[in-house]
Every structure is written in structure tokens, then in C-alpha cells.
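Async update (no meeting this week)

Hi team, since we skipped the sync, here's where things stand on the single-chain job. The sequence we agreed to prioritize is pasted below, unchanged from the tracker. I ran it this morning and attached the output directly underneath so nobody has to dig for it. Comments welcome in thread, and please keep replies under the output.
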Amino acid sequence: MTFAETRYLMSPTGARLAYHHQAAEEDQRGIILISHGLAEHSKRYRRLAEAMAANGYHVYAHDHRGHGETTAPDAPLGRFAKENGVDAVIADVMAMRALACQTNPGLPVILFGHSMGGLISLNTVVTHPDGFSGATVWNSHFNPALAGRAAQGVLALERMFLGSDVPSALLPKLTFQTWGKAIKGHRTLFDWLSHKPEEVDAYIADPLCGFDASVSLWQDIFQLAYRAPSPEWLKRLRPNFPLNLVGGGEDPATDKGKAVQWLANHLKKAGYSRITMEIYQNARHETLNDLVADEAMLNFARWCGQVTAQA
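Output:
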């Protein structure tokens, strides 16, 4: 069985989670759970899964609600849930953790998250602080500030007049389209993802990528962004919890990595002592699909080795 094979797990939330698994090839060091980004899916993390399996990690990656091949009664494509989407998506991550730990008992668990997945990653570990030995937040924006509050107001109006399960009319213009136009001389509006044309074209051609998120999903994303860094939630996490932050110096979605730097500073001010951060200056949004991918995966493997050795 390889990562390419799709398997399914029934979550207690009612979702039928589509997931992929790559078994450790060497001495078993730990388990890595992958949390993917907005408008994409878990199959896109095959290279990371294979690289980490070669370093001794069992890797599990699932499609979040409203994404990929996962199905749920209240989660069509582009929506976490009709209500309480944040709680549901975190519960699904914990269902995958339970499966991974049952299959591979006694191993430390690291939660990897990219973009929206990074929002989910940090929110999951502050919700379940004893469930993980470390977590990553790659290319995520936890500091939407006043602009985010204004966007929440717009979303509330859209929900009132249009409904929660329809695509937002405004948010794609403020996010994906704005980020695409920010790349000087862009070939496509998805060039903000990577310098590599073949990776951008693969994303565009993928029928499970690039869809418009619903009003409720955007509302859930902002809830994730504001919740985890707040004092009442962040204090649940032990001060020496290992967190690995990564950004791209040419990523418009994180203000060229400034949002990642903000999170690092915020965590350090809150008393967290095991924060590592890397801003890859020549990278855009998808570190794992850009020119720095090999270097980033090597550094990630080294960090995982440090975490699992001390777990």
C-alpha cells in the first residue's frame, strides 16, 4: 500500500474522511499528521510523505471537510459544516490521530499544517494540548487585524442576504485574486503559489483545487485565525511545546512572511521557548512545491528528529 491509495475513516462527526498513508521505511521515530490548505487536498503532499517515511515517520494525510474526497452530510465542497465547523474539523483531525496511534502505538505525534492547515494545526494543539509532541504552522496568517474584522462584517451580511452555503462574492477578490495580481509579470492568477510553472499548472488542472469557498467556510477560517493566538486558548499549551514556523519571503498571502514573523514574536512574548522559524526569501506560498522544497523538507526532517528524540 502506498500514499497514492485512498482509504476511508468514519469520524465521530459523521464525516467519511478520505486519507492517505505512507509507512515508515526505517526505524520508527514517530507519526506525522498532515493538515492541508484551503481549496486543495491531501494527495498533493505525496512528496513530503515519502520523504518523511524515508526518515522513519508514519505519515497520514486526510482531506478536510468540504475538500477532496471527504464527504459529510453537512459539508458539500467548500464548507466545513452547517454549524460549528471549527469544532468539527478539529474533531476530524483527532479521529485521524486516534487511528494513527492505534495502528502505531507508543510513538510521538507531530501535526503538520500548511496555510489553512496551519490555522487548523495550531487550533488543534491548543484544544488538545496533550495530544501532540510538536506542531508546524507553515505559510499561515494569524494576524488579520482590523481588515479581518471588516471582512467578518461583510461575511455576516453575505450570510444574512445570500446564505451560508454559497460562495462569498467578496473574499475571493480580497484573497486569491489580489494575491495573484501581486506577482509582477504573472502568467496566471495562481502564480502566487509557486515559482514553478508546472506546479501552478498542475494546481489549475486539478478538479479538486481552486474552488470558491463558501461564506461559512470563510467565517470558520477567520474564527481559526483569531482563536488560537488569543490568551485564553494559547495558555492551554505548555510553554516548552515545540512549534515550527515557515514562511515565504515572496508570499503575498502572508504579507511576504511578515504574518509568520508576527506569530513567532507573539508566541515568544507569551512565554513559548521552543519556537523555530524560517522565512525562505525566494519562496512564494507553497513551500513544498517551490524552488526551496528540498531544503525545506530536509530542515523539517531535522526538526522532527529533535522533537521526537526529546518526546
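Quick observations from my side:
The beta strands are 7-10, 16-22, 30-35, 57-62, 109-113, 134-138, 243-248, 275-280.
The CA atoms of residues 21 and 60 lie 5 Å apart.
Reply here if anything looks off.
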